Amino acid sequence: MAEPLDPEMFDPVCPSSAMPIQIGDRWTAMVVLCLEGGRRRFNELRGPLRGITPKVLTQTLRAMERDGLVTRTAYDENPPRVEYELTDLGRTLLTLIAAARAWSADHLPALLEARRAHDSSPRSSLSR
Amino acid sequence: MAEPLDPEMFDPVCPSSAMPIQIGDRWTAMVVLCLEGGRRRFNELRGPLRGITPKVLTQTLRAMERDGLVTRTAYDENPPRVEYELTDLGRTLLTLIAAARAWSADHLPALLEARRAHDSSPRSSLSR
DNA sequence: CCGTATCCTAAGTGATACTG
DNA sequence: CAGTATCACTTAGGATACGG
């Protein structure tokens, strides 16, 4: 298990990463997906989560640990090694996240098109 | 259709309203649910959405209209009347929201318990 | 390698008051 | 009735630098 992650799996700027939902904060759902394949080290998570700073990743993981979504295991080695893993509770989010991604695949283009049409309409900046 | 809404249906402070997901901003999912039963007037929405201010409700509805989730119909009457209604696209969110609420019903207690246990643990404020 | 410590800004939200 | 106009505030999130 735990095959290498695509280091560019998530790019929050890229619309294809757009999710209609947010679970917890901005990164939580992505972290869950990153941990789907098994336990990961801190720096293994930083790659796929394009642009996340260590501070924010720590924050996110701490909050998830607090909520019982992940476990944190620190090995007393040098250099240090810390691994994160989904709990059973954390894994229950996977189906919900999958549903959300399915919604995006099915309907996000329509939403974006509606937005584009609205923004380019003369009425959008006028009389209300 | 359009039976009267429970004026206390949603209280963002109440944990039973807690959602594991957010769709758009803080209120969007609740607005979708409020409109599930049919078209509603502006002030009809303010009751169930406990504590929402008119400014924020307007913001939310405008954003949803822009994204093609609701339609806004203004009748030229006095006193003014404006009705909001879900579009087909907006209705596609209902199943996703239902899935989210089901997750809450099934797993939110466990999450909250994990949080409580973590917060009351002596380790939570100590050595990291 | 795995974080912390500071500092900072932008967005979201709300309170209050006012208007066509 | 259905909004707007201000003002104020909190917090998530990020940039950067440093530490065990």
Automatic annotation (TrEMBL), chains A, B:
Keywords noted in UniProt: DNA-binding, Transcription, Transcription regulation
Gene3D superfamilies referenced in this protein's UniProt entry, alphabetically: Winged helix-like DNA-binding domain superfamily/Winged helix DNA-binding domain
Signal sequence, renumbered to the chain: none
Matching Pfam families: HxlR (PF01638)
Occurrences of domain HTH hxlR-type (ranges): 14-112
Protein name per UniProt: Helix-turn-helix domain-containing protein
Protein source organism: Microtetraspora glauca
